[in-house]
Amino acid sequence: MELWQSLPLVSIILPLFSAAVMIVLRGKGARAFCFAVLGGETLLSGFFLIKIRAFGQSYTYPMGHYPAPFGNEIRAGLFEAIALFFFMLILLLSLAGGLHKLEEHVRKERMPLYYAMILLMTASLSAQIFTNDLFTSYVFVEIMTLAAAGLIAAHGKGRAILASARYMVMNMVASSLFLLGIVLLYDLTGHLLMSPIRQQVAALAAEGQYKLALIVVVGLITVGLSIKSALFPFHSWVPDAYGTASPASAAIMSGLVSHAYLFLLMKIIYRVFGTELFAVTGIENVLFVFGLAGMLIGSIVAILQQDLKRMIAYSSVAQVGYIFMGIGLGSRAGMLAAAFHLLAHAACKSMLFITTDALIRASGGSSDLRDLRGAGFRARLTAAAFAVGSISMVGFPFLGGFPSKVNFVRAVIDIDPIHRIPVLIFLVLSTWLNTLYFLRAVISLYTMGKQDQPRREERVRTGIAYALSLAGFIALNAGLGLFSQRIINGLLSGLSMFS
Amino acid sequence: MILTNYAEIAAMILFGIGLMLLLLNKNMIKKIIGFSMTDSAIFLYLAAKGYISGRKAPIVTDGVTSAEAYINPIPAGLVLTGIVVSVASSAVLLALTVRLYRKYHTLNLDEITDRARKGEE
Lengths: 499, 121
Known about the structure:
The complex is a heterodimer of chains A (499) and B (121).
Chain A: H1 7-21, H2 27-55, E1 59-62, E2 73-76, H3 78-105, H4 111-130, H5 134-153, H6 158-189, H7 194-207, H8 211-228, H9 238-244, H10 247-281, H11 283-304, H12 308-329, H13 332-362, H14 375-378, H15 380-394, H16 401-412, H17 417-445, H18 464-482, H19 484-496
Antiparallel strand pairs in A: 1-2
Helix pairs in contact in A: 1-2, 1-4, 2-3, 2-4, 3-4, 3-10, 3-13, 3-18, 3-19, 4-5, 4-10, 5-6, 5-10, 6-7, 6-8, 6-9, 7-10, 8-10, 9-10, 9-12, 10-13, 11-12, 11-17, 12-13, 12-17, 13-15, 13-16, 13-18, 13-19, 15-17, 15-18, 16-17
Chain B: H1 6-24, H2 28-50, H3 74-104, H4 109-119
């Protein structure tokens, strides 16, 4: 075992212990420490990505060198490395971009605790990406939920606390179901590591034993993770949570937290149940139908919103629907499309949430879409970034959203018409609706109303960190669009070493 | 079969009661009680599944090292970990409830939502 193969373990432990250190730090020292750790983690994941790409296959890292059925395991491959590197970039950019607003929302002596929450979230993110043990994944799912509740509540106002409490209640339901699923699976197979469970589950399925029990287990685990990642009928906590949280928190929640659960779900489908069992139980079709419904209903409700942040939040529900639809297709191509959309949506939605704050300030503190008129002239860079994010969402070429939509079409183009026709219809409808509400917002940013003429040209002042973060986000989205083929090839070989 | 698995049946009934409390009750404190019930039910189920009748707790006494003499220790470990997670979650939710009660002077989630919407603050 070579030294670089310990990097996944380091990427879990480093932020975990840094979060504990954060408690004794104050003021600027805390901020510098947090950014140093996150920057270090980003470099580390980038280095790991290069190494694993050269290595060319996934490997299992036994913790404490105990052999397979006894110890705890980490498993890393190309897909994991790409996902962690992207998520770390997005986290760093979101935190840098939202920092100035965060310092208004959170009292100064509380900021180290906020950073501690971010680091805990990072640790559980990389643990969920790398772990090969179901119970470990449950523990880190819970840590992530608690950290996310803290991120929402950090705003401090009554509505943010309420949103955080609602988020917690929904997530408690989800984690109870998820835990019950894991416990029943342990009861059926006698293992907690993913690969031995897979063998036992395959043996049970081949013998035709415990059919109903396996369906219940697959259902419980899938529903638990769907609630946490805001699949359509369980999305009730989304608009409040994303709409009231500070922009950095909203960006991190929508970009990282919900997608980490989706990543875990993909991993469990591939490594624990196997795609065959997942197809046989019929849960796949349920995800497919609810994904399609989410795509449409999320977009329709987004059109009805008058509040900028709530509109983006409902758009998130629609985009998560795309990912679930891709998973529900049950083919390798569908999973690939879902994996690419995971990255494209995370990059795009985080940028949109970061821009909301300066746009709201440019329109006199109102987040109503009608008051945003002309804000594009008062906050130029922000409005440009918002426009880039919007056209990426809509599926404009050269940006992340376009190759992702092409992937979905490619995934369904030569399969049975029961899947193909609804996907194509809903894809067109949802894209059309996306265009409707995003372009409405962009157009209103760049139109001057009559009553706006006498208003003094007051440019919104933003820091250098904010400008750099937006530039980074725009570059990330453009990179996803321009180098899409290389990323897709990477994801494809990552997925083939995933199972 | 059903007649002998008392603990498992009790666990599933408790889980159902807890989940319904957590989902349907308006009172924040009762929601948290419901959450504790669901988790306790899962722990009861785990403990019942780990027990092998006629064997002892997995602590080596009198020099007996054969695995045949002891029950499965892993579920106990899982229960301990689960209890820690469950306590942490309940504590966070209770802290949020205290903040909400100080602000809105009620524990009813619907009323809190109403007041938050009216107050806009």
